[in-house]
Amino acid sequence: MGAWRWRAPIARTVNPSLVSTFSSKRHQDPPGEWAQLEDAEAHADRDSRRVLLGPRAHNAHFQGNAITTSKYNIVTFLPIFLFVMFSRVAYLYFLLQASLAWWAVVSPFTPYGPTIALVFVLLVAAGKAAAEDRKRHAEDRRTNNSAAHVVQADGGTRDCKWWEVRVGMLLEVRDGEDFPADLLCLHCASTNHVCYVKTTNLDGESNLKIRRPLDLKGGVVGSAAEAHALVGVLRCEPPNPNLHYFAGRFTYRAPGGSVAAVPVDMNGMLLRGTTLKNSGRIVGMVVYTGSESRIQMNAAPPPRKRGAFDTFLNVQITVVLAIQLVLCLACSLASLHWRQAQGFKRYHLALTNFSEGNYQSSAAYLGILFLTFWILLSYLVPISLFVTMEIVKFALCSVFIAFDPALREGKAGEQARARNSDIVEDLGLVEYVFSDKTGTLTSNEMQLRAVAVKDAAFGGLGTRLEDMPEGSAEANLAAFDGALAQAARALREHGFLPAAAAAGGSDAPTLALSSSSGNLQALEQSPGLRRMLHTPAADKPSPGAREARGAADADGGAGDDGAGGDGPPICQGPSPDEVALVEGARRLGFEFLARTRTHISLRMQGHKVDHEVLTTLDFTSERARMSTVARAPDGTLRLFCKGSDQAMLARLRRGTDADLLAATHAHLRRFSVQGLRTLVLASRVLREAEYDAWHGEYREAAGSLDDREARIAAVAERIERDLELVGITAIEDKLQEGVPDTIRLLIDAGMKVWMITGDKQETAINIAVACRLVHHADKLLVANEDGSPEAAQALLQDLIGEARRRNAAEGARAEMVIDGRTLGRVLGSAGEGALAELASLCGGVVVCRASPAQKAAIVRMMARHKQQHLQASAPATPLGRALRALLAPARAARRQVHGVRSRMLAIGDGANDVAMIQAADLGIGVMGKEGRQATNNADFAISQFRFLGRLLLVHGALADYRLGRLIKYSFYKNISFASMFFFFQFFNGWSGQAPLDGVTAAFYNAFFTSLPIGAFALFDRPVRQLGTLLAAPQAYNRKSPLTTRAFWKTGVLTAIVHASAVFFIPYLSLSNVRQRPLDDVNALGKTMFISMIGVVSLEVALISRFWTGWFIAAWALSWALCFPWLILLGTIYSAIRANDSTMIGTGRALLGAPIFWVEVLLVYMITFSLRFAERSARWLFFPNDDMVLAEREMELERRGTPLASDAPETELALRPAEGRADKEGWAEQHGGCHGAAAHGGNGKLNGI
Fold first, then answer.
1. Would you say the pTM of this structure is higher than 0.85?
2. Which of 840, 842, 850, 844 is nearest to 772 (CA)?
3. Where is the P-type ATPase N-terminal domain (predicted)?
């Protein structure tokens, strides 16, 4: 197969013999060009994907490459939009109302009003949907019409659009271009035959990834023309969303007609959404296109989550509809009774003349009147609320959160993102916070701090290699650890270092030593070392090594992201830990130089060596380790392995010295207590025959399409054994800025914070102490149990009693730690409830050695516990059980409403946090260095953990405040309006007549009262300076403005009282003795309409605490326009020649009558006075937390004391007192029940 190693000096140079071989073969067997290859693939899984490669390959049956992210087109917009809207129960209800309005027999209104209201709401929603979808269409057009380069037979290219790309095509991609589809790399123009891709758009990682062309039995495709001439078949897995795994086998016809097959994995795949960098150009075969590409299959939206207020609304709307049902039935019965008792006696009503709508049958009459009253009282449910809520939620997320400068890292930092505006109110209702550690609490900026070689440790936590000067390896090594520098110097002086470097390390007898402190004279007697010292290969690189050096000289190193100049090289790697190890070793004189497809170049204390990389066993979370088999310059075969201590120590050679193991465990514990991340390193020398036999098994496993990953893992087990311990590395991952203050803020706000990590217990505790999650490490409740589930449950019961004793005695919540093994014994067993109960008693919980599945299970466990906690204990008596069954619906509603105030939040930055994020009520992704899978599956995304405090305590509290008041006052204005109609029925014989026309009623709901309430919901805030909310975290989620009691008090009771004044004052003022009498129903209705708009506007103005220009404009406009509306409506009806006496002339008559103005002003004075008195009494004697904060804020402004800044970086001026504050009775403790402002402001708010 050596003929396959083409080294053409120009990338497009064609190998004539290869082209002629393939050309002749094509002419000999045109119809069966792939027949032999198919015979070789006869055993392949027929469910797998089969892609033909060749000049005349036909793959037309696959998905096209055009993508469509838009939801609608010009034909489907209307039907799909209407289907989506009317699939919601609320909009279906309003559609029914509007439809019934066209049945003149039952409708008390003209049909235009309800229809206009529904159409208006649908138009607003349609405009929002169309605007969003228009952006998607523009992005789709830009993407689909991008240029791709199709490779021709001569190696040239022709351009086509991305949407024209098909599976099996050969495409050329150049530096800086995005890959148009998922490609199999066949050729790379760089001299070292590797390419570098930037995957930021795919997974968010900024470091470059190395990809290699297809390895054709040791050869490479040397040009685009040779790639075009290649004939083969790719068998691979069906389309799937896995970004890190690919299984395939490429069968091809080699020169001479022989058939060969090679495995294909993710290292040879170039995925759509990534960008080619520093590689010149590549040629690849299209494998997946369009919606079948990996990036598109990962574009699924996060799971549908319901906001807390949606749950609340469902309960309250159900109750309101039940009340409406009862009222309609009662009014129908009252109408029937009045007709029989009074109506038949009043001959002028002609009720004895039965006709349509006045049926003689009592049942028919009741049915018609029931529908009439149903339409009349339909205003109990506000149709405008739903579209207003969508607009407000969209603005809260897309404007206030996304453009908050305090939620980004400097002007150039990434802004916060909201991917699910439906649950924005949940930000203000969090009780539990489940946080990942690495990359979430820590910065994911790794730095090497210490190492252990055998039983000796070097370096320490205070060692800062990153601050040491460049180019001073010997001085840096001495600063890192003098003993290590002395050992390196002695090795050089005795001539051991060149030989050891050429051999790839110590020989097997030296590796087996239990201590690294032996003297050099003893080592000099080692036969293996003497052989190394006299090996000519120590100074003679192989041809492959020379190739590696040439590639390094030509390309300037591996993964250099365009950073030229004389500065230090920029290392790129798949893991921050690996980059930290390479960077730390470089500063100590052990330098990584270059990486080619087959070789790696190193400089070891000034001695340049090149190793041939034979096999790499990649890291997986199941294996918790990775290995590489390499051949040293002297021909020695070695296995190098690194991984977690749990995975590595179990694979050491039997008989490993007990003292060495004890010293290793001591080093691991010491490094972990210091908060350092540890890796265990091991190695062993392999025999050539052993490796050849194993490698055959490995190639067979790597070439399989079924269970490739499991088969490779099984084969890896057979070589990753009998290892010799080399040592330990200890890496520091520093806390992010502001993490301790943020966790302190969350705990002071009453949240229970969990830190869940896969690290060792000592490391996790140390980080928890550093970030102030744990205050007393010596008093931690430790839940570690290796025994049975029953033993674990017994331990948890004991700890529950201890936690209760500590909470009662010390006045501060207990803190606990639990490991993954104990979790595995408890989760899903009878002990799960005990664990949840124990955790609920603790203010801080640390979970270590947890798997991704356990992270999600913890969230679900606490959610179930919270729901069970809300259920009252079952009565023991039969009567009690009967009452419990009778009240079950009410109890279920209570649980739903109370569950609103306890939301679970999960925050993480990596793919291993996705399950936890999706299981929580609220998922927060941190845009860190572990990719974008967490943020792509989260509801909200931030760039730093410290922004979580502001996101919850400011934006969450504002969303809770604004949306809660929006819901209350939307129901208030509508129940007031419907109550006015209901009162009128007492005086019209329960006829179902409305005192107002349908058009005016529709505009009342959709415009005149929605505009000020919408502006109020967008711009109002409980305090003037938002930093006050950060300064007083105890007020967070203590009592929502939207409780059942507040809803029924404001939305129902206040509404009925105001409706009484609006109806009875104009009604009782009716008189026909004046010169211009206003005694008809039309005048009464218009008077009540004007009065009601003013009452609602004054109510909104009264409860608004932060008047902005936008709010004032909306408030004044809606109120001012209602007066000319009376004249305008009559003018419109006159213009269209609609002879309706209820419209024409009534407005002018009203506005010209003094009694009208007296009635309206009297209504305003009475309702406003009642409400003002009630609000004043509340502020003076029963202030809530928001009122107390506002008073303190005004007091500080009067004194000229600076208040806390809105920016989270600034030290809070209103910092809470030490320790955890008890949130219960907080307002009473910090303001009393007598209004501090009214009594000189003597109360104090933790430093205000």
1. no
2. 844
3. 57-112
Cα–Cα distance for residue pair 944/950, rounded to 1 Å: 11
Nearest one of 495, 532, 490 to 511, comparing CA atoms = 532
Query: Mapped to the 3 state alphabet, what secondary structure does 1175-1203 carry?
Result: HHHHHHHCCCHHHHHHHHHHHHHHHCCCC
**pLDDT at residue 23, rounded to an integer:** 36
- Give the HSE-up count for residue 908: Cα atoms under 13 Å, Cβ half-sphere: 28
Give the β-pairing of 922-926 and 903-908: parallel
How many whole angstroms from its chain centre is CA 906? 9
Q: How confident is the model at residue 1201, as a pLDDT?
A: 67
pLDDT value of residue 1248: 26
Q: What is the pLDDT of residue 573?
A: 67
| Amino acid making up residue 851 | S
Considering just the CA atoms, what is the radius of gyration of the chain in Å?
38
pLDDT at 115: 84
Distance CA 1178, CA 901 (A): 23
pLDDT at position 151: 92
Q: Which helix (H) or strand (E) holds 926?
A: strand 922-926
Tokens representing 952 are 């919850």
DSSP letter, residue 777: G
Residues 864, 176: Cα–Cα separation, whole Å = 50
Percentage helix, strand, coil for the chain under 3-state DSSP, each rounded to 5: 50, 15, 35
Q: Which of 702, 697, 703 is closest to 718 using CA atoms?
A: 697
Residue identified by tokens 């609304």 is: 313
In this structure, the dihedral spanned by the alpha carbons of residues 409, 415, 421 and 427, taken in order and rounded to 10 degrees, is 0
Strand-pair category, 752-756 with 430-436: parallel
Q: Residues 846, 848, 849, CA angle at the centre, nearest 5°?
A: 165
The whole-number pLDDT of residue 167 equals 92
Rounded Cα–Cα distance for residues 117 and 96 (Å):
13
Tokens of 36: 């032999």
Token pair in block for residue 1163: 């209504």
Instruction: Please write down the HEC assignment for all residues of 838-881.
Output: HHHCEEEEEEECCCHHHHHHHHHHHHHHHHHHHCCCCCCCHHHH
DSSP assignments along 952-977, one per residue? IIIIIHHHHHHHHHHHHHHHHHHHHH
Angle subtended at Cα 403 by Cα 400 and Cα 407, rounded to the nearest 5 degrees: 95
Residues of the chain with pLDDT under 70: 1-47, 201-207, 217-219, 256, 299-303, 517-570, 572-574, 621, 811, 870-901, 928-932, 1040-1041, 1071-1078, 1137-1143, 1201-1248
Q: Please provide residue 126's backbone torsions phi and psi, each rounded to the nearest 5 degrees.
A: -65, -40
Alpha carbon distance 445, 451 (integer Å): 18
In terms of residues, how long is the chain? Answer: 1248
